[in-house]
User: Which sequence fits this backbone?
């Protein structure tokens, strides 16, 4: 039976059809075709199945953050998630991490329900989140101390990741003695030191200046290529998503749904002067601009209701 698409999705499908063949999205996911018997993808390492999230404010107002969200994440996938502000990107990441509970739907990790923190899922936050009273080396091995690992394992792991992030000479430094980029490298090393299968990254470079951010993007790819993990990376930067990801997941305005999943079929290292880079950026930005207008209308309705 022919699927009926919403006018919004039809608009995006028409935009996609106008793109050069080599940068067309792999597929567009719509509400109409996302259901439990969805044949589009095989089950991945992480399976996000029909997740909804509704927050209720102190004044009783309901905020529908995520709606009927379906995603399959394959092992060793590097996926960046972009979308308008307030569309539920970080909320989705926290649900996968087990730090938030979905209102309905479920997340599976290795085919098991995932609803609490898991040792095989690490997370890096936008805030550096290092413990200020611990040195760089002590921060890196924090998880191993919690697991009561042997002194030999802690020393070996510290050496490995200090070398990986090029910070051996700063092993005895404290967080306040480091730049923002250096602190975030330590936070990444701390997450990797527990050897998780999945790394969740919630706008980890959002607080950095533009030049440091570009350097950290290169640094992350260097680390990832030496220690490949499955990565879900939330960002507001379309440029960052294109530079880093194997696939880009574009979310709609609140309540957030998967609007489109785009295969970034460009070899690494990528150059921003590549015409395909610019074409893909324009396509995604057009989608986000449309949804930002929709989000503004939704916010106006919200404030009218709250202050009425």
Assistant:
């Amino acid at each position: 039976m022919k699927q009926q698409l919403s006018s919004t999705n039809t608009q995006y499908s028409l935009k996609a059809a106008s793109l050069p063949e080599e940068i067309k999205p792999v597929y567009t996911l719509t509400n109409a075709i996302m259901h439990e018997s969805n044949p589009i993808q095989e089950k991945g390492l992480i399976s996000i199945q029909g997740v909804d999230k509704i927050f209720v404010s102190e004044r009783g107002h309901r905020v529908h953050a995520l709606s009927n969200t379906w995603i399959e994440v394959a092992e060793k996938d590097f996926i960046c998630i972009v979308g308008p502000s307030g569309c539920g990107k970080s909320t989705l990441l926290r649900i996968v991490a087990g730090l938030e509970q979905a209102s309905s739907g479920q997340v599976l990790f290795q085919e098991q329900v995932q609803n609490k923190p898991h040792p095989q899922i690490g997370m890096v936050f936008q805030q550096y989140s290092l413990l200020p009273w611990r040195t760089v080396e002590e921060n890196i091995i924090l998880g191993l101390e919690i697991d009561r690992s042997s002194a030999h394992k802690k020393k070996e792991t510290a050496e490995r990741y200090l070398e990986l992030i090029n910070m051996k000479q700063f092993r005895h430094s404290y967080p306040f003695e480091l730049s923002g980029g250096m602190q975030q490298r330590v936070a990444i090393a701390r997450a990797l030191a527990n050897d998780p299968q999945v790394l969740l990254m919630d706008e980890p470079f959002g607080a950095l200046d533009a030049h440091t951010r570009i350097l950290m993007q290169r640094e992350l790819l260097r680390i990832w290529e030496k220690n490949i993990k499955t990565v879900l990376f939330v960002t507001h930067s379309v440029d960052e998503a294109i530079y880093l990801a194997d696939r880009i997941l574009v979310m709609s305005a609140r309540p957030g749904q998967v609007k489109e999943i785009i295969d970034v079929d460009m070899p690494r290292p990528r150059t921003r002067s590549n015409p395909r880079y610019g074409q893909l950026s324009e396509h995604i930005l057009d989608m986000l601009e449309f949804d930002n207008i929709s989000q503004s209308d939704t916010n106006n309705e919200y404030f009218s209701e709250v202050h009425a």
